Amino acid sequence: MDAGTLVEWLVHPGATVHRGDIVARVETDKADVEVEIFESGVIDRLLVQEGEKVPVGTLLATLKPLGSEEAVTAAAAAAIPPPAIPKVPIEPPGAPEPGTLQHATRAAERLARERGVDLSRIIAKAGRRITVADVEQAIRPGQPLPAPVKASPRARRLARQLGVVLHTLAGTGPGGAVTAADVERTAVPTSAAQPAVAPPAGLRSRADRVVARQRATATAMARSKREIPHYYLGAAVDLSTALAWLERENLTRPVAERVLPAALLLKAAALACHDVPEMNGHWADGRFQGSDAVHLGVAISLREGGLVAPAIHDADMLRIDELMAALRDLVKRARAGSLRSSEMTDPTITVTNLGEQGADTVFPVIFPPQVAIVGFGRVSERPWAVNGMLGVRPIVSCSLAADHRVTDGHAGSRFLTAIERILQDPATL
Amino acid sequence: MTSDELRAAVLASLGDIAPEADLAGLADDDDLRDELDLDSMDFLNFIIGIHERTGIDVPERDYSRLGTVGAALAYLAAHAAG
Amino acid sequence: MTTGVRTSYREAIRSALREALQRDPRVFVMGEDVGRYGGCYAVTKGLLEEFGPERVRDTPLSESTFVGAGIGAAMNGMRPIVEIMTCNFSLLALDQIMNNAATVSHMSGGQFSVPLVIRMATGAGRQVAAQHSHSLEGWFAHVPGLKVVTPATLEDARGMLWTALEDPNPVLIFEHALLYNAEGELPADAGPVDIDTARVRREGRDVSIVTYGGSLPKALAAAEELAQAGVQAEVVDLRTLRPLDTGTIVASVTKTHRAVIVDEGWRSGSISAEVTARLVEHCFYELDAPVRRVCSAEVPTPYAKHMEDAALPQVADIVAATQDAVSTVA
């Protein structure tokens, strides 16, 4: 390890620090490192900017002895003409809600609090949290801020979760406040559980939406690969029984009610969660939180580009024709951009199905905070040995990526075996 | 149905699925799945669209015979007549 | 459920008293006019004849004396039920209640407990003016060492007394005077109920109306009226003001995201203020509208009928506040 990227300053110039305080977070190739300070004093200058990569041993900041704090804060305050500092209430600090991406760095929150800046009025650079630099930009003389937003606490929380910028909304609540319903109306489907990055829908062009969705996917996938220790398992599953059954079923069905093989695969994955419930739930607050209901996320690629993975609620409880109807409806609405916020936040496990045009095998990436994702590749005819004889069978490669903090290869194997077993008995689906 | 009406029905069904596609630029022998990036759900919706517009019910085993606009027109013409 | 018996809130309390006197020889009833007169609200009518003057005792007009006597009896192994005519008069015994009953267990390191039950009437609405009409249960709910319960239903009127007697510490029962004549069906085998939890009296999804005691029937009437207008209000009956069942309140508001608190006490420093604070502490991020309160006007309760009506929370006030909480401008 010879270099690191300064990810976040936890202090700002003028802050009093004590020996042992954590002042910054640095990302290295090996790990994220919290930088401790070994002297007490007052931060004078930050010499390395957030996002900068520097060699090990680089001076990060300078410190003044304790007692000179007065002079420093006074000087900082004097540099800012009073009228430029809007004295408006700020959001309470405190820990972020579970499932919420913290939308400002801690140092930025602290600075905003000290200077009386409303964080909800600051727009972070796309895909990033509000940084000290953003707050400083906001309190620069002559820099007008957007008007204050009146919004309920619940609306604010929801806006963060769904990536909606509050001051673009017209409130319909008491006194014109923005309510949760206002936020939900505006929220666009972004990739599952991906807050904080996408601006509101109604105001954006199609191209903007594509870019925002790509950013959301990028954030989710980067977080997944950064935080989730994935392990991967695969199994080749013979679909001859299932497809033959489906063909017979579809013969009796009017064209609009025909069931696609995808519905069988989804149902099998949902039912397998009963066998291995540790695959179904969320990783939150440092532990696995299982879910009784199976809300099956379905990865849907959008024609304009990008991906969403909204939920079919209670997929394990739906009959196969109900599941097919739900899938058709979901795909239609995903492509029309009219998903519901609950569909975006509820999935407890996701299935990605590459379909007949796809590759043989997929090694999928888990959507945080979920803990598993099931992938199905292309169904193709393969030579297949049964009872000492070779035959030609339709085979699908079924893969599982799961979170090693929650389960291991043994549980994963049981899960794939369950899917295989369920698909051999399609009438029970 | 005349062949013009059938063509209109096929193109309208495709337009529902892929509103952004340039259907005028689609050749009769272009592979629909490749050119329009149709997945199985899209294709099912295409078959449903044709059914709604022409009344022709394409059974599953014949899906592969509607791989291009030209093939689809030939198939539909045969089945509309019969 | 067994067959119901038609009864009133007053009769339900009386049968609870009778049962307590029958079940436990340590129980006795004491207060002003509880014997020969039958109680100022006729709750103890007939008990003197049934149980005799040893166990149904008329006292001099000195709240401090008979509450103090009750504390002493409780500390010495009896299970007294002391009746104070109205909670206004309980202030004459405040020293005994706060400085003795509430503290003895703590100050004696647990060597003594005070298993005393004090019943009193509370609330306005009968044109008996400011000496007899105030709602001071919220005050008492401020005091550690006391349990404060506010039965609002026949079941609670019938069932809270026995549970209170079993509690090793003093329990104050506030009976809203307007409820005494309330009638309804009570199961023939109705018995003790818990005095630790709040209860959802009506389910709804749009807004939570949190209330207790004499305001419960008003809140339910308001909810009924709101339902006609398409607003599904949930009504939470606090039942016990101390200790407050924060979990039930927070669960309801977490579901509805809006809260209206109805409290016949004065707004400033009231139990409604405490409930509001708990909501802000425990489910701030669930709130989708400011918390609304419907409380009594901050004046001594007026005598004149139209002024008394204007000073108290009324169904129309609750409806208006709730509509305000759920309002949206198109």
Mean pLDDT of chain C: 95
Q: How many DSSP helices of chain C?
A: 12
Structural class of chain B: mainly alpha
How many strand elements of chain B?
0
CATH superfamily of chain B: ACP-like
Order of helices and strands of chain B: HHHH
Provide the β-strand percentage band of chain C. Answer: 15-25%
Which stretches of chain B of 5+ consecutive residues score pLDDT under 50?
none
CATH topology of the largest domain in chain C: Rossmann fold
Which value, in Å, is the CA radius of gyration of chain B? 11 Å
Helix content of chain B: 55-70%
N-to-C CA distance of chain C: 47 Å
How many structural domains can be distinguished in the coordinates of chain C?
2
Question: What CATH architecture label of chain B applies?
Answer: Orthogonal Bundle
Oligomer: heterotrimer
Number of helices of chain B: 4
Domain unit count of chain B: 1
Low-confidence stretches of chain C: none
The CATH first-level class of chain B comes to Mainly Alpha
Binned, the helix content of chain C reads 25-40%
Q: Could you characterize the architecture of this molecule?
A:
The complex is a heterotrimer of chains A (429), B (82) and C (330). Chain A has 429 residues and is an alpha+beta fold. Helix content of chain A is 30%, strand content 21%. Chain A has 3 domains: 3-138, OB fold (Dihydrolipoamide Acetyltransferase, E2P); 153-216, no CATH class; 229-428, Chloramphenicol acetyltransferase-like domain (Chloramphenicol Acetyltransferase, 2-Layer Sandwich). Chain A contains 11 helices and 18 strands. In chain A, the strands form 5 sheets. In chain A, strands 8, 11, 14, 15, 16, 17 and 18 form a 7-stranded mixed β-sheet that branches. Chain A is elongated, with a radius of gyration of 26 Å. Chain A starts with a strand and ends in a 6-residue tail after the last helix. Chain B is built from 4 helices and no strands. With 330 residues, chain C is α/β, with parallel strands linked by helices. Chain C has 2 domains: 4-187, Rossmann fold (3-Layer(aba) Sandwich); 199-326, Rossmann fold, CATH 3.40.50. Chain C has helices at 9-23, 47-51, 63-75, 94-101, 104-107, 137-140, 154-166, 216-228, 246-256, 271-283, 305-311, 315-326, and strands spanning 4-8, 27-31, 56-58, 79-86, 117-122, 147-149, 171-176, 183-187, 199-202, 207-211, 233-237, 240-242, 259-266, 292-296. In chain C, α3 (63-75) packs parallel to α4 (94-101). Classes of the chains: A alpha+beta (429), B mainly alpha (82), C alpha/beta (330). Chains in contact: A-B, A-C. The interface between A and B is medium-sized, with 19 and 17 residues.
